[in-house]
Amino acid sequence: MWLWRAVDDEGEVLDMLVQKRRNKHAAMKLLRKLLKNQGIHPETITTDKLASYRAAARELGLTDRHRPGGMRANNRAENSHLAIRRRERKQQKFKSQGSAQRFLATHAAVYNAFNTQPHLIRRPSLRQFRAAAHQAWAAATIAA
Q1: Do residues 66 and 27 make contact, with C-beta atoms less than 8 angstroms apart?
Q2: Contact status, residue 104 vs residue 112, Cβ threshold 8 Å
Q3: Between vectors from CA 77 to CA 72 and to CA 82, what angle results, nearest 5°?
Q4: pLDDT in tens, 20-65
Q5: SS3 label, residue 39
Q6: Fewer Cβ atoms within 10 A, N terminus or C terminus of the chain?
Q7: What three-state secondary structure class fits 95?
Q8: Cβ atoms within 10 A of the Cβ of 43, count?
Q9: Which tens digits make up the pLDDT trace of 73-118?
């Protein structure tokens, strides 16, 4: 299974998709889903050097925005995978593609709610942001 994850420039997870293959069809599925759900077209799309991204961007007409990254260019996307990789290292692997998709979609929502970038803001502001995140989480879990 391959995890395809789209992250914006601030580290927030935009969308994720679990696929069995890492080919042009899977890359096109992710890019189409992103473009449809976001409503706006991004200025740049930074990916790793996988040729599937290049082929999908060519077919969707995004070659002028596509930047195949080199070293450190796609660190935001790679760092957002760390929690999932940690789980796999502990041998708590996913049983199926569907269970991985369900867990990772929920994990992305929780990550976005509590990702406050504490190294960039002052401590009192961090407390306010975390309190707001906990209130939003409490409201969401009561409704569900």
Answers
A1: no
A2: no
A3: 100
A4: 888 899 888 888 888 888 877 788 888 878 888 889 989 988 888 8
A5: coil
A6: C
A7: coil
A8: 7
A9: 566 556 655 666 665 554 456 677 777 777 777 777 777 677 767 7
Cα 132 to its chain centre, rounded Å, is 22
Pairing of strands 13-19, 45-47: unpaired
What's the pTM? 0.59
- The rounded distance, in Å, linking the Cα atoms of 4 and 81 is 10
Q: Judging by DSSP bridges, how do beta strands 45-47 and 66-68 pair with one another? A: parallel
First to last CA, the chain: 29
Six-digit token pair at 124?
């009192």
Alpha helices in 39-122 (DSSP H): 51-60, 75-79, 82-89, 97-114
